[in-house]
Amino acid sequence: MMYDENKIIPMIIIFVALVTFPLWYNLGKAAPKPDPKIDTPVIQALQNKQCIEPKAAMKTTHMKILDEWRNDVVRGDYSRQMTTADGRVFEKSLQNGCMKCHSNKTKFCDQCHNYMEVKPFCWDCHIAPKETN
Fold it and tell me: Do 102 and 109 contact (CB within 8 A), yes or no?
């Protein structure tokens, strides 16, 4: 026979309920999938709305591209121009390249980074752009 079982068993049940509360409270609730907005004035004015790489590639490799650009410009051959396979030329620059078109940081960058819980270190060195509507 367990000593004071009429007190211990209810306390165990309460403890398990409190510890597992966040799990079952949020069951079935998922964060909404991000929908980055590319409706900036610069992008809308472009005849061919295409980035340096296709959309699928940019979703997965944009940070690698930015790291390569940083290494080229700051630590490497100091080249500031990037030519795509189809001959388009872009400046290797976060602020003068990427953010020139994607000027809506909160609706474009932050939305996905927050969803993925990623804290990019871009703005440790760069000045965050002023939002344009």
Answer: yes
Helices and strands, number each (H, E), in the chain: 6, 2
DSSP for 51-69, please give it.
-SS-HHHHHHHHHHHHHHH
* Residue in the block written with tokens 């390249």: 97
Residue 18 lies in a domain: no
What backbone phi and psi angles, to 5 degrees, belong to 42?
-65, -45
Count: domains in the chain = 1
pLDDT one-digit tens code per residue, 5-25: 788 889 999 999 999 999 888
Task: For residue range 73-86, list pLDDT tens digits in order.
Answer: 888 888 899 998 88
